[in-house]
Amino acid sequence: MLTIESISPKLLKAEYAVRGRITIRAQELERQGRKITYCNIGNPHTFNQKPLSYVREVLSLLEFPQLLEKDLGDLFHSDSISRAKHILKQMPEGLGAYSESSGVSFVREAVAKFINNRDGITSNPDRIILTDGASKAAQTVLTAIIKNDKDGIMLPIPQYPMYSATMTLLGGHSIGYYLDEENHWQLNEHALHTSYANAVKQGINPLAITVINPGNPTGAVLSYENIKMIIYFARKHNLAILADEVYQENIYSKSSSFHSFAKVMDDMKIKDVSLFSFHSMSKGFYGECGHRSGYLEVRNVSDEMFAQLVKLQSINLCANLVGQMATYLMVTPPHPGDASYELYIHERTSILNDLKEKSLIIGEALNEIDGIKVNIPKVQCTLS
Fold it and tell me: What does each C-alpha distance from 266 to 64, 98, 178, 273, 335 come to in angstroms?
């Protein structure tokens, strides 16, 4: 019989606080009849955030296409019906079959168009991989680039602990760099150089820097100039950039704007810094965590390098098909004039305003506790 002594020491050493011992204890209490409210992880639908009607209408029809043969009356919006028919025409095998390893081609093309529309830059659908959420995308990149126990990745402090836990599993080093709390949690160039230099002194080989923008858990939105500084820093030290951009819709101030690393790098005309960008439907205003939908966009790597990423993805065969279709719906929302557009805008705006209000409530409550001080993200506007 296997025992704890039989387990990989890397797994034993890995820590993932958002699903750690406190959560296990909470589950024990729940089985004893206690009512538990889980605040350990971003999981909006467990707190009664309603899924967007457009997404669930189309996914329902894709999962049970026989409905399209019925008179659906007012149960589904007409554009949801036409969107489902359009999808099924391109993949008549439905959602029960494997796709190619990188993901369904028309979805990757839609992601590339989404990036083009968002940033005004060219995106290559053949350098996009559909993944089971952004976490899987990040883990794919880390698995591909960590070669030995001397390699390390620069990670923000504070950070989303999936990164440090994955580094432990892979046998690499987490190289922490402190965010500048007094400057709205921007990245500090001096802190980056200090962190890098200390790692090198310890015999660690830094390979990449992970940047979460907007920040998790800080909520900070990086300025255009701050992103330029990070790109120059990465270029100077021959580091790849892992850009976690899953909260790009969660910006509540008119004085802040989301700038993707891909857009800034394109403006700078830099072609020799490898960039891995992640986005997901788990966050933003969708909160569709359970559908495990996301994508990885890759820039400035060799064809041979990208082929290895695809091979790594193929070991898991492909991302789940429902999640791939959810990603498609994320990047192709209803347009003005579509039957579901007004409801979509209403639901999106309501959720974002609700999240904005909650960020204020939590920040103000924490600041009322002796010994605790938080820098509340800028919140100045009502979204519309």
Answer: 42, 34, 27, 11, 28
Please state the pTM of the whole predicted model: 0.87
The rounded distance, in Å, linking the Cα atoms of 261 and 256 is 15
- Judged on CB neighbours under 10 Å (0-12, 13-18, 19+), 174 is buried
- Structure tokens belonging to residue 380: 């100045």
Residue partners of 17: CB distance under 8 A and separation at least 6: 40, 161
Q: What are the pLDDT digits (tens) for 131-188? A: 998 888 988 999 899 998 899 999 998 877 788 888 888 888 999 999 998 888 889 9
Gap between the Cα atoms of 342 and 58, Å rounded: 16
H-helix or E-strand spanning residue 243? strand 240-244
| Angle of CA points 243, 245, 251, to nearest 5° | 140
- The predicted-structure confidence for 63-119, as pLDDT tens digits, reads as follows 998 888 888 778 899 999 999 999 999 888 888 888 888 899 999 999 999 999 999
Cα separation, 316 vs 95, whole angstroms = 17
Tell me: cis bond preceding 334? Omega within 30 of 0 counts: no
Q: Which residues contact 179 (CB under 8 A, 6 or more apart)?
A: 156, 157, 158, 185, 186, 187, 188, 191, 215, 218, 220
Identity of the residue numbered 137: A
